[in-house]
Design goal:
By secondary structure, the protein is of the alpha+beta class. It has 19 helices and 24 strands. 34% of the residues are buried.
């Protein structure tokens, strides 16, 4: 008897559901994408218990007739692909025809739809018992998914707690609202409104709804194109950062994607502007001919391949880097009362990865606390709604020939760390170490690009290494020689350094040289650009005035004059701010001289 048999449709759909539907967010994603493909301008997502009990997605799209409503639950039934050639020119968000049958196989689904001529309702339970009946004629589609994974208890067991499931859904809907500012999105959980956009096409207003006023005022518009790509969107000031990459939203023809290579490139554009453990808020939409991208990689359609990745990376790097170089990035030291509101309002966006084995009682307790937080949020949002619409701060392009900051005049030093200065615009606080570090860093980078001037050491520096470190370092002797360090093997697992470059100060030569050798001995993939940065930053740090050091009036003037000449005078090489300001207007408000 033959051992190979053809699976029945229900079993095949359950297996497919393992890739398409892993959590509640996947259901929301597939249904929302179908609504967008149906040309909807309003999409409402209503959840009960974070979608575990019920997910309802309603749109005002073109709807379906009875035949299409029934066909939609057949595997690989789709209106978006007609032939193999269409795979190379995909413009819709969905195209596989796996979502609805996969969802229906692990839940109870009710579909109500109308194209304006006929209304149809389809009920299907666990992928079986399909029932069709007449419905009302309201144009659009409503799909209700109840009791997700009720017939696959193992998968239900591995759903995370309600808080985490809801956080994943909110994060996804936020990104879709950023992708389609012309669509009105509403997200409700247990009758609590978590997101509501007006669909007027203003991307900055959507950013405001998601991140709040303080972030929206610190977003910079960007735009650029080349022969293959057109890019538009917003990037945040370096002072506005998050602790993870979730706030980097990249879109391709309106589709939310996750591409680690692009995310790394975007973060690298902020190199030395922000701390290495912080990430900017980014919304970038990439418009490209669909023939140049391949989205048919994974059922989730989140990954994507670009035909001309090099030109795209060059364009993104040029756009972001140029914009950051054009504007004044001095953080505002004033405390904004709305920041506390925004913190409460957007805490649900945190992607908290909690232990999935956590006891149900603890999970339910967290969920109840979250609902209480939402009650507080609603009161604060009501207060926020009474405020006049706040436009983003005007972005002032720097037009000066050389300096990006007006001349500042030192007045005193606080705590032997912070220089207090002023000019006609306001008062400034300058971190003496961070500012000196930035000045020295850029000076060293410039000298490193030139042919090194060698300085002989009267007493060579001997460095002993572990055997594994010595093996790694031997592969990098040429790099040390290239930058002016004359190195020789000296006995077992040891080296001596006979010269150093002129940009290394004599009194710190041994300390800096040993640190550079330590950097080269790091295990892992060697990154030349990272090495250059670490070498320059390390040297600059060790040769700069430190916090707590006394500096004279002349030293203060030297720091203030030279920080103005830097390409990036606003942060040290490690991303910490060098300077913050109270504008004259803000000081007058603090002292009630300005009451508006």
């Amino acid at each position: 008897m033959s051992k190979i048999q053809v699976m029945d449709e229900v079993l095949a759909n359950k297996i497919a559901a393992g890739e398409v539907v892993e959590k509640c967010m996947n259901v929301v994603k597939e249904l929302v994408e179908n609504s967008i493909d149906a040309k909807a301008t309003e999409i409402s997502i209503k959840l009960i218990d974070s979608g575990v009990k019920e997910i309802e997605v309603t749109d005002n799209g073109i709807g379906m007739d009875e035949e299409d409503a029934k066909m939609a639950f057949l595997r690989h039934a789709t209106s978006k692909l007609k032939s193999v050639d269409d795979l190379f020119y995909i413009e819709s968000l969905g195209f596989r025809g796996e979502a609805l049958p996969s969802i229906a196989s692990v839940s109870n689904v009710t579909l109500k739809t109308s194209n304006g001529e006929i209304g149809t309702q389809v009920n299907i339970n666990g992928g079986k018992d399909l029932k069709v009946e007449r419905s009302d004629l309201q144009v659009g589609t409503r799909i209700t998914v109840r009791d997700l994974f009720y017939n696959t208890p193992v998968r239900l067991k591995y759903l995370k707690n309600l808080y985490t499931e809801l956080a994943n859904i909110v994060e996804y809907v936020n990104k879709m609202a950023l992708s389609y500012p012309e669509i009105k999105f509403t997200l409700i959980n247990n009758d609590k409104v978590l997101l509501s956009t007006d669909g007027n096409g203003d991307l900055l207003k959507v950013i405001y709804e998601i991140y709040g006023i303080s972030v929206a005022k610190k977003m910079i518009p960007v735009e650029g194109e080349n022969d293959d790509y057109y890019i538009s969107g917003y990037i945040s000031y370096p002072e506005i950062t998050k602790s993870n990459r979730n706030s980097i939203t990249t879109l391709v023809n309106g589709r939310v994607i996750k591409n680690n290579e692009l995310n790394k490139l975007i973060v690298d554009c902020y190199h030395t502007y922000i701390h290495k453990d912080r990430y900017p808020i980014i919304v970038l939409n990439i418009d490209v001919d669909p023939i140049l991208v391949d989205i048919n990689i994974h059922p989730t359609k989140m990954d994507i391949k670009f035909s001309k990745m090099d030109t795209l990376k060059e364009l993104i790097e040029n756009i972001i880097t140029k914009r950051l170089e054009e504007i004044t990035l001095i953080p505002d030291a004033s405390t904004r009362s709305l920041e506390a509101i925004n913190e409460v309002r957007h805490q649900i966006n945190l992607n908290i990865d909690e232990d999935i084995t956590e006891k149900k009682e603890e999970s339910d307790k967290k969920y109840e606390e979250m609902q209480l937080d939402f009650d507080v949020q609603e009161e604060k949002v009501e207060l926020e709604k009474k405020l006049d619409a706040i436009e983003p701060e005007e972005i002032v392009d720097v037009k000066t020939d050389y300096n990006r900051i007006k001349k500042m005049y030192p007045k005193t030093v606080l705590f032997m760390t912070y220089i207090v200065a002023e000019n006609d615009d306001g008062m400034y606080l300058i971190d003496q170490h961070a500012a000196a570090e930035r000045i020295n860093y850029e000076k060293i980078l410039k000298q490193m690009k030139e042919k090194p001037i060698l300085v002989d050491l009267l007493v060579p520096i001997k460095i002993e290494l572990r055997n594994d470190e010595f093996i790694i370092l031997k592969t990098h002797f040429d790099i040390l020689e290239q930058y002016g360090f004359t190195v020789e093997e000296f006995g077992f697992n040891s080296i001596i350094i006979r010269t150093h470059p002129s940009w290394v100060p004599d009194d710190r030569a041994e300390d800096i040289t040993r640190k550079i050798v330590d950097i080269l001995c790091d295990k892992g993939k060697f990154d030349f650009d990272q090495f250059i940065w670490r070498m320059a930053a390390t040297t600059a740090c060790r040769m700069s005035v430190m916090a707590g050091d006394y500096i004279s009036q002349e030293d203060q003037e030297w720091i203030l004059d030279n920080i103005r000449k830097c390409e990036n005078p606003f942060t040290c090489p490690h991303g910490r701010p060098t300077i913050i300001t109270y504008t004259r207007y803000e000081l007058e408000r603090l002292f009630k001289r300005q009451l508006d």
